[in-house]
């Protein structure tokens, strides 16, 4: 079998937050990996732990958050117990993040040129490049993200650029720093659909050209389907289903994924399903068994007490559900 | 088609800027809303969707044009709306978190329209509030809760219940579900559809989500930079979009199934960015991003033409065709 190289691997990650002396168990045994030059998506509704996962990957959890167990391997090294200088290296050269709102990710009073220089200075610190060489890298990256006239962009301030251009600049910074992984947190949500479409096409083409590995989190199933090759469906801090994007969207197996797909208004216009009753569980005392059990139409006694484990159903597609496992 | 409840004629709304320029937020929009239908108003941010809503509801005065509600021009200079008219046209906003007072109980918030529109004794008021909550499918115990203690979807249902308090004839829904998760959105939308059937409401539904419109709207209108591009019955609109912008918009939607992919108009790659409404392009406002741009588009503004019954489009491609046809007919 062909050797797969995982750039990043998340193993059995559990994260909890302490809010007002109450411990909330947010992430529970999250597992996924990103192969080099591939894109992986994490989809889930608000409050399901998407952003917590991203923060953990950069090791920037808020001060009240603790990693209970698990490890995050970057090229085989666990970033969760890396010494500080190595961790810095990882953030400067390894993984870069772009956010939902590109206007708050860029400093409004610093020109784009200086924002590039700041990031590149550290990312290429070993190579002893001159300023001119760094700027050349910046200009090249701007061209890669289809921003014409890099000189004008470099001398502008963020407010002089449109939302779509700002998002392109954020991506270009990651490219110019030659980081391996792009963490994209809802990269198109704040943009208009036609502009979002452009940004998604750009990310996809960069992945296909082998420039980047991408982890994208979003609430939009459609966005994930368009961009990623593998997908993980997240519900209440657990990944309930995962696999090849086409396969998962073609044959969703977990009741949550199925319900979510039904709820989405479709262009074919078959009306809208009733929605999913109930809400996500209280993280301070999550259900003992499957976390989706209280809202699941197929719930059995086993679901309430026993935690389901990933069950492979072929084609690299797996789901954590007793229904699929028992073949009901 | 039924009776016309609202007719907007050549509506204009300009905002002056400090430096003497003007933002033409809405620039000559005409459309009709029939009784009992849902008219979907779709467009990207900054195209003037909300401005139209606020002008119809009376939060803004119009800079020009007419807003005919049951034949009365509400936008006429100096015209003061009667209490009845205000009650009959209601609005539901996008973010229920900020449209409900966070320091008031649900009951207190819902009392306001009742106090203004039909004064009644305390017990009757409580009864009416419970009845309204029941209409939107919420338990009556909710009246003593605070907005922060209930979910986002439930909060939006409270906003809908509050809009219903004055027995409206039409409700403007300004992106009512775009702040909600899809599983919650489904419930709110279903409640809205049920209420419409039961109370014969007319909805002006504003959104940027075309997939949602496909399932909710009777007719769809597309807005670009303060002007209408296309207006058509929903099925026709999705199966035969005519305006280049509409085609680009439809092909940009990320979808989840193969069947949907088949509906999208081919490989139309979205290009360019929306120009600023302060200095909108001359001629057709879309010509800077249009792949079928002709010379005439850069100088002359196209007009709304009815290409098929009830299917209007504002594009030179089609007006030219129509003129040709007319000429041919004359020659015959």
Please tag this protein with its features.
heterodimer, A: 328 residues, alpha/beta, 35% helix, B: alpha/beta, Rossmann fold, 8-stranded mixed sheet
Structure description:
The complex is a heterodimer of chains A (328) and B (332). Chain A is α/β, with parallel strands linked by helices. Chain A is 35% helix and 23% strand. Chain A contains 13 helices and twelve strands. The longest helix of chain B has 18 residues, at 182-199. Chain B starts with a strand and ends with a helix. Chain B has a single domain (4-98, 167-331), classed as Rossmann fold, CATH 3.40.50.300. Helix content of chain B is 38%, strand content 22%. The interface between A and B is large, with 41 and 43 residues.
Based on secondary structure, the structural category of chain A is alpha/beta
The total count of strands of chain B amounts to 12
Number of separate structural domains of chain B: 1
Order of helices and strands of chain B: EEEHEEHEHHHHEHEHEEHHHHEEH
Shape of chain B: globular
Low-confidence stretches of chain B: none
Helix-strand topology string of chain A: EEEHEEHEHHHHHEHEHEEHHHEEH
Our count of helices of chain A gives: 13
The helical percent of chain B reads 25-40%
Radius of gyration of chain A: 21 Å
CATH superfamily of chain B: P-loop containing nucleotide triphosphate hydrolases
Biggest sheet details of chain B: 8 strands, mixed
Give the distance, in angstroms, between the N- and C-terminal Cα atoms of chain A.
33 Å
Q: On the 0-100 scale, what is the average pLDDT of chain A?
A: 89
The CATH topology annotation of chain B reads as Rossmann fold
Give start-end ranges of low-pLDDT stretches of chain A. none
Shape of chain A: globular
